[in-house]
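Question (not urgent): is this output format expected?
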Amino acid sequence: MTEPSARLRTIEVEPDDYSLIKPGELVDIIELTPLTLQDRRIYNLLILNAWDSIVEPKEHTIRKKDLRGSHNVNDRVEESITRLMGAVAQIKIERQDPETGITDTFTRRVQLLGTTDESIRGNGIVFYTFPAALRAIIKQSTQFARLQKQVMYAFSSKYALALYEIVQKRGNLKFKTSEEFPLERFRSLLGVDAGKLEQFKSFKQRAIDTAVLEVNGLGEFGCKVEPIYTGRKVTAVKLSWWSKNIDEKKAAFNELRSSRVGRRARLTGTVEQVMPVKAVSKPQPHPNLLPSNLSPRLTEKEFSRFKRDFPELDINWLEREFTEWVETKDAPDDYAAAFYGFIKRKIKSDF
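Got this back:
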């Protein structure tokens, strides 16, 4: 983020081959319509693609393949675009009262995406626009976050991507290294759905801790989130951030180049036992987990289906979580179907 005194407009800042620029006003937003991790990624790519003329009242074009990322189907792109068109963000702005001439803070509610035309062809084009009110905000913006594309794609939850953007917006401030947020506002900034993770313990375990772990392990800045109490109740949080040293930056760079498999264990410093390739290729059922005639692993076809249906998730890691969870349950008759239901429930509760 650039200090206000610099007077550098956000639209004057250039993205590069590895990063994109996101106006700060579009970072600290409250989603009145919840977005998914993939929605957030696609929106950032739409901003990047239109950046050279984003404040102009014009139609932009982008090919579906440039929005799919690791997707192999187009329906998820269509779903994301539909949600983005219906998404309303709540943004804090400064305006002058026409009667008193006094500048005050206002809440502006604005759509994130305007009219779109999407080709029916799989490799076709998407035409899209940004609403006039949003363009005006971007044009006046003097604060921004530079987001690394590789980091953006590495996160496993929308909470981590939201926290990363919040930290990136503030990381280069010269005279500020922390900020306090009312608890409900911080929940909203991370994109927690209404009615979800209402207890602070659940919010911390499911959203904050996961997000901090990934941002610290993959991002350019380190951060921590600490609770602030009023009496015995958590009413706010304090977000602190700092520049990483050379070794920490190297570790993050190396992690970005590594497989997602085992990432959580590496970031938490826990030890995983890695079986030889031959042993892994022919796994034996857990004696207390599954019937002897049912493999505790997915077939190649089943794994491909899971990657198709949940492209933004780490299927290998989720399968480890599933096997730990199912050890306390009756052995499922259909391993793949039970695992599929487990992921759907996890998405509903966590993301």
